[in-house]
Amino acid sequence: MPANTEPAAGGAAALQSEFSFRVGKRLSETCPPTAEQVTANGGEFLGRTGTITTPHGEIKTPAFIAVGTKATVKSVLPEAIAELGAQAVLANAYHLYLQPGAGILDEAGGLGAFMNWAGPTFTDSGGFQVMSLGSGFKKVIDMKTVAAAEHAGPDDAVAPGKERLAHVDEEGVWFKSHLNGDRHRFSPEISMNVQHQIGADIMFAFDELTTLLNSRGYQEESLERTRRWAERCITEHVRLTNERVGKPYQALFGVIQGAQYEDLRRKACRDLGAMNFDGFGIGGALEKENLGTIVRWCNEELPENKPRHLLGISEPDDIFTAIENGADTFDCVSPTRVARNSAFYTPTGRYNLSGAKYKRDFGPLQEGCDCYACANYSRAYIHHLFKAKEMVSATLISIHNERFVVKLVDDARLAIDAGNFFEFKAETLGRYYS
Fold this sequence. Notes:
Layout: H1 12-16, E1 20-26, H2 27-30, H3 35-41, E2 48-54, E3 57-61, E4 63-67, H4 78-83, E5 89-92, H5 93-98, H6 102-108, H7 111-115, E6 121-124, H8 127-134, E7 166-168, E8 173-176, E9 183-186, H9 188-198, E10 202-204, H10 216-243, E11 251-256, H11 262-273, E12 279-282, H12 291-301, E13 308-311, H13 316-324, E14 329-332, H14 334-339, E15 343-346, E16 349-352, H15 372-376, H16 379-387, H17 392-418, H18 421-432
Parallel strand pairs: 4-5, 4-14, 5-6, 6-10, 10-11, 11-12, 12-13, 13-14
Antiparallel strand pairs: 1-2, 2-3, 7-8, 8-9, 15-16
Helix pairs in contact: 6-9, 9-10, 10-11, 11-12, 12-13, 13-17, 16-17, 17-18
C-alpha cells in the first residue's frame, strides 16, 4: 500500500473521526528549561499534555495505561481499576488469541464489554510475545547492554536450555503456543483480524521485535520488514473497518523499532510517520540509560499531532524521562507483578511487605494514600495475608501500586500545566531514590 493511501471515502474515513488527539500545553512553554537542562537532556524537551478521544471516552495525557494482559488486570476487578483512576486498560492480542480466542470477544461485543470495562482500551499486536516467548525468554527479552555491534550475539539466539518456538519469514511468523505446543501463524493480516475481533479502541501494527544482541545487519533487515508489514497492516485495517459495519472505529498505531541505533530509529519514524497511522508506539530494545535519548530521537521525527505510546515502563525515573521527551502514554505490568511478591510503592521507595518488621505495623501501606487498600487495611494485615498465601494480598497491594503509578503520572501532567514540572520531578525522585 502506498504510504499516502487514505481510507475509502464514506467508510473508514468517516469512522476515523471517532478518534482524535489534541495537544494541550507544551513543557518547553510552561516550564522553560535552562540551557544546562537542555544540554543534560541531550536536546530540547518535547513533553506536552493532551487529550486522546476514543469511542469509549477520553484519555488525558500523559497517562499510565494499566495492563490487563488476558482481559483482566491481574488480581484486580475492573471496577477497582476505574475507582483508582486508571483511564484505560491494555490487553494482549497474543494471549487472547490463544485463550479464549478472539472470536469469543467479538461475540461478547468486544474487549470492554467482555471484561466489564467501560473506558478506552488498547491491544498490542502480539509481536512482542510471539518473539519473546518464542525465543524462550518468558516475560522479557534479554536486553543486556552491548557497547558495539561487534559484541552482538547470534541473530537466532534463544534463552539457555530453551527451544526456539518462533520463526520469521517475509509473510509473518510461525510459532508454537507456550500453552500446549500447538503451531500457529501470525502475519500482519492475521494480527489485524485478531485485533479487530478483540475490538479495542487503539491497536498496534504487527512488527518484528529485535534485541540489543542482534547484529546491525539483522536490525536493518528487520526494520525494513517491519516497514513492509506496517503497509500491509494499514491495508488490512482499512478493509476490515469498511467491512465491519456498525463497529466503533479502532485506531491503528504504527510501531517504531530500530534498537539502539539513531539512524534506524529516525528512519523508522520518517517511514511510518508518512503513513496513515492514527498514532505511534515506541517499542523494541531500549537500554535504560538511553531511554530518554531514544524517545527524543523518535519524537523529533514523528508527527506532532498524533499520540505516542511508549511500550513497557513504570519506574518513576523512567516515567519522568519518557514524559519530558514526548511520550504521551505508556504501560507496564510491573505494578501488579511486584505486588504478587509483596512489593509496594511509597514516595520514599519500594519496600517488601514480607519483612518481619511489618508483622505489627498497623499503619497503611502509604500514609496519605487515597486508594481503597490504604483506606481500609493495615500493613500488618496484608503482611499476614501474604505469609498465609492468601490471594487477596496481591489484590490489595496491586490496587495500591496501580494507584501510586497512575497518580504519579497524573501529578506530572498537572505539573506541566501548572509550570512546575522540573521542581516536581526533582522533589519526587529525590525522595523516592533517597
